[in-house]
Each structure stands twice: as structure tokens, then as C-alpha cells.
């Protein structure tokens, strides 16, 4: 039976073609017969065929799509000399979810027993992931399981979006705004207060337990002191509970941290903060639009370390313009000297909307100045970064991928024992409801009855968020009520049947 060229099949076909940088229009046909998916590529009068069998323990539709992608990928690697990608045919943001799904299922004893070698081999076979990446994925996924078990249907996190930064980085595609005047900030704070009060009422109404509070952005500490204190007080008084295990504030830019803000965070029981260098090379900081020095980073870190009991995260980015493997080695070594509790290594993602992406598409820009490292160099950067970080007893505990990533690799969070970010793990597995408030925030509600996630989004645009905050509040309220009622009815029906 010939498989219809559906939107999903078109999408996964494009993913393979994009991965191998193929722009040509190709004749690709797929067939399903007796549980076997066959893919045929016709090019230049020649026919290339690959087949594989559906795993009967998996959902048929998902298996068909996986095999269509796998077959096409293997045709290009085996017949056209295309280089295998580190993650093979894995394309999603949250690859560890696949392993967690296998473990939760009742279909396979080795998965349920968390047999690491079995999981590694299955990832390699099903998704053509390299041995190195399969081992990394399995290590991270198994480390997350005890954290995931701390949550139930009533346990949630709260995300607060503060969409302001002091400057916009060259590579940034986040929906953040350069800090406006006090009048516009006041308007945002009024909308935020409405948003917070409504979210607090939802938490009270449904008896939710707030495990984590995460204030991100943007850079929340970009707010002037008086607004920062007002924001922190509203959030603490509305969401902090006896159940709250983690309260995180992204400090991000060292030039936004001062002793007044440190004092406020202490008063509000914040126990996790970040200082994000991205690089410790001054020339790169200047190029990407950061108005601070490596010395400022060190000073901000030391101020936070000396004046709070919190865990501190630091972010670095691989693949920044003009950087070499030696630059990354230098940055990692400088960060390790500070002994943060958590280090996140990102690979540069060239997202639409960033100044860097637009500059690279503009012939008038001096591209030599913005020269980006090759994929192989970025992979070499990742290897040296991982080696250095692991040598100091940091272990990977969360991982995610993005589109357009340099090196086709991943973003990895490493931490010392006991310093795992609970929110980071929960949001990646998407098995815990996240109530989003603030600019560009997303509310993600787990529908346990139907085993799926439903989302509502606040506006990315600041003016629209301020103007329409009541609309976003109502959409969040309505969706949550609908899902809660459905789940309650399902439980009631199940009890009656028993």
C-alpha cells in the first residue's frame, strides 16, 4: 500500500534533506506492506530502496513516520557519502522523553528495569544516534528519574516572564525588549500584577502544590531596583508555599546584579540564581553586544556567592562568532575556577529574528568579522568542554536540542552532586503542569486523562501583552478548568466501574 504524502511525511522528509543540505526536488515514495515500510528514492534515473520492519510494541503511526525518516537517512548515508549526524534522525527538542516513555511503558522488561546498555543500543538502532550521544542521553535520562518521581498531578511549577534586557545580544531571538522607560515598566508591572493574582487564584482553587518558581526572561534583574523589589514581593507572596523546593531567578547579565537586588532575593528565599558569561573573551563579548567584562562576571559571581546560600548556574555558548577551540577551553577553565554549582553548555542556534542571522543574510555586512566556527569545530569545542567539566566532578543532568544548532549537537546542563535544577528537569520531560505568567510566558497543562500536553501563550510583544492581559488570563483559566473537569470526570467514572 502506497503511503500518502501527508504533511507529517513531508515534514520529516524536509528534516532529512535539510540535515544533509539538499535543496533539489527529489522523487521519494513510501510503501507499507505486511508491517514493513519501504522508501524509494529516484534520482538521475537510478532507484535507491531501503526497508525496515515496524516494532509491534510501538504505536503504528509513529513507527511509520520513524521508519520513513530512517530509511531516507540511510539511503543518503549509504549511497551518497553523506556524513552521519551525531543525533541521527532525532529531531525533537527533548530527546530524553523517548527514553522516559520506554521506561514508563509496560512493553519491554529491559526498559522498565532501566537497563542502560539495552537503552543505549535501542537508541542507536531506532534513531541512528552515535554511541557517544546515545550514552549521554541514557545517562541524563536515568539521572532524571528520581527527580521526576517527586511530582504528581497536583504538583506544578510557576514560570514568570520578565521580557527586558539592558541590551540585545547579537545571537538573541528571545522575545525580550531593551529596558524601556519607567512609565512603560509601570504599565507592564500593572499587567503582571493582574496576571499573578489570577494565577494565584487558580492555584488556590485547584489545591496545587508549587514545587518550583522560575523567574526568567529576558533578564529579570534588568529591572530597576524599585520595580525588581515590587516584582519579587508579588511573586513570593503569591506562589511560595511549604511545598516549594526551588525558587530560581535568572540574573544573567553581571551588569544587572547589585547588593540591593541580592538582599531582596535573600528576603524572598530564592535558592538558585544564574550568572551567564556566554564567553570569557572580551573581544567576543564586545562583538555580541554585551556591555560588561570578564572581570564584571567574576565580581558578580563572588558577590552572589558571598551573600547568599543559593546554588549558582553559569552558561557558556559554543560556536560564537570568531571563537576557536582554544577560546572555549579558556572560557571553561575560567568558569571552573569559580566553582559554580551548575554549568550549562549551549551550542549557538541561528534563530530567525536574531541580529546575527539577519547579518549573515546581508551582503553589506563584513562576514569575516562575524565568521562562525564550522560544525566540526563546534563539535570539537563540545568535546573539550565536556572533558574539562567532567574532570571536576560535574555530571550531566538535563539536555535539550534546538533547530539550527551549530554542530548539530545539544545543550547540556552539568552539575555537582545534589545541585540538579528541578525545574530544568520537569520542564524538559513535560509531565508537570507549568503555570506561565508575564510577558511571552507559556502555560503548559498536562492532560493526564489523554496523556498529552495543552498550552496557551501570552503575547511576545510587550504592548500587546499589556493591552490584552485579560484575554490571556481568561484563556489560561478556561483551558485549565476544561482539563481539570475532564480528568475529574474520568476518575469518577473509573471509581464507579470499580
What is the domain total for the residues? 3
Radius of gyration: 24 Å
Largest sheet: 9 strands, mixed
CATH class of the largest domain: Alpha Beta
Share of residues in strands:
15-25%
Helix segment tally: 16
Strand line-up of the largest beta sheet: 12-13-11-10-9-8-7-4-14
**Average pLDDT for all residues:** 91
Structural class: alpha/beta
**Contiguous uncertain segments of 5+ residues:** 351-365
Give the name of the CATH architecture of the largest domain.
Answer: Alpha-Beta Barrel
Distance between the ends: 43 Å
CATH superfamily of the largest domain: Aldolase class I
β-strand number = 16
Looking at the structure, the CATH topology of the largest domain is TIM Barrel
- Give the overall silhouette: globular
- Helix fraction by DSSP (H/I, runs of at least 4): 40-55%
Amino acid at each position: 500500500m502506497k503511503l500518502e504524502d501527508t504533511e507529517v511525511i513531508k515534514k520529516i522528509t524536509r528534516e532529512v534533506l535539510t540535515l544533509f543540505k539538499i535543496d533539489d526536488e527529489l522523487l521519494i515514495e513510501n510503501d507499507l506492506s505486511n508491517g514493513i515500510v519501504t522508501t524509494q528514492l529516484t534520482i538521475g534515473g537510478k532507484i535507491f530502496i531501503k526497508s525496515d520492519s515496524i516494532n509491534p510494541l510501538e504505536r503504528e503511526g509513529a513507527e511509520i513516520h520513524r521508519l520513513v525518516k530512517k530509511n531516507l537517512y540511510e539511503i543518503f548515508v549509504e549511497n551518497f557519502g553523506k556524513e552521519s549526524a551525531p543525533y541521527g534522525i532525532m529531531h525533537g527538542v527533548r530527546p530524553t522523553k523517548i527514553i522516559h516513555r520506554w521506561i514508563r511503558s509496560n512493553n519491554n522488561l529491559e526498559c522498565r528495569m532501566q537497563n542502560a546498555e539495552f537503552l543505549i543500543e535501542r537508541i542507536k538502532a531506532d534513531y541512528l544516534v552515535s554511541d557517544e550521544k546515545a550514552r549521554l542521553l541514557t545517562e541524563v535520562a536515568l539521572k532524571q528519574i528520581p527527580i521526576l518521581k517527586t511530582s504528581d498531578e497536583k504538583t506544578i511549577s510557576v514560570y514568570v516572564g520578565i521580557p527586558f534586557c539592558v541590551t540585545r545580544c547579537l545571537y538573541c531571538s528571545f522575545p525580550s525588549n531593551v529596558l524601556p522607560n519607567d512609565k512603560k515598566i509601570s504599565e507592564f508591572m500593572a499587567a503582571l500584577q493582574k496576571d499573578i493574582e489570577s494565577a494565584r487564584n487558580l492555584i488556590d482553587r485547584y489545591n496545587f502544590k508549587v514545587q518550583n518558581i522560575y523567574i526568567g526572561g529576558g533578564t529579570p534583574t534588568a529591572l530597576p531596583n524599585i520595580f525588581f523589589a515590587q516584582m519579587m514581593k508579588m511573586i513570593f507572596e503569591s506562589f511560595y508555599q511549604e511545598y516549594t523546593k526551588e525558587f530560581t531567578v535568572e540574573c544573567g547579565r553581571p551588569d544587572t546584579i547589585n547588593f540591593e537586588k541580592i538582599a531582596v532575593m535573600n528576603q524572598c528565599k530564592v535558592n538558585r540564581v544564574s550568572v551567564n558569561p556566554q564567553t570569557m573573551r572580551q573581544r567576543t563579548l564586545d562583538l555580541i553586544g554585551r556591555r560588561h567584562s570578564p572581570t564584571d562576571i567574576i565580581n558578580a559571581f563572588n558577590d552572589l556567592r558571598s551573600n547568599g546560600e543559593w546554588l549558582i548556574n553559569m552558561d557558556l555558548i559554543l560556536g560564537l562568532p570568531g571563537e576557536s577551540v582554544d577560546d572555549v577551553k579558556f572560557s571553561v577553565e575560567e568558569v571552573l575556577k569559580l566553582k559554580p554549582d551548575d554549568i550549562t553548555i549551549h551550542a549557538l542556534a541561528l534563530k530567525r529574528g536574531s541580529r546575527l542571522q539577519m547579518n549573515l543574510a546581508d551582503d553589506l555586512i563584513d562576514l569575516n568579522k562575524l565568521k562562525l566556527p564550522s560544525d566540526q569545530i563546534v563539535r570539537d569545542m563540545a568535546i573539550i568542554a565536556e572533558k574539562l567539566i567532567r574532570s571536576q566532578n560535574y555530571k550531566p543532568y538535563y539536555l535539550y536540542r534546538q533547530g539550527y544548532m551549530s554542530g548539530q549537537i545539544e545543550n547540556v546542563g552539568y552539575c555537582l552532586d545534589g545541585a540538579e535544577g528541578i525545574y530544568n528537569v520537569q520542564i524538559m520531560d513535560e509531565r508537570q503542569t507549568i503555570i506561565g505568567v508575564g510577558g511571552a510566558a507559556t502555560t503548559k497543562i498536562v492532560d493526564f486523562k489523554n496523556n498529552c500536553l495543552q498550552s496557551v501563550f501570552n503575547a511576545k510583544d510587550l504592548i500587546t501583552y499589556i493591552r490584552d492581559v485579560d484575554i490571556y488570563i481568561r484563556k489560561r483559566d478556561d483551558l485549565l478548568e476544561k482539563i481539570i473537569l475532564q480528568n475529574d470526570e474520568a476518575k469518577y467514572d473509573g471509581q464507579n466501574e470499580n
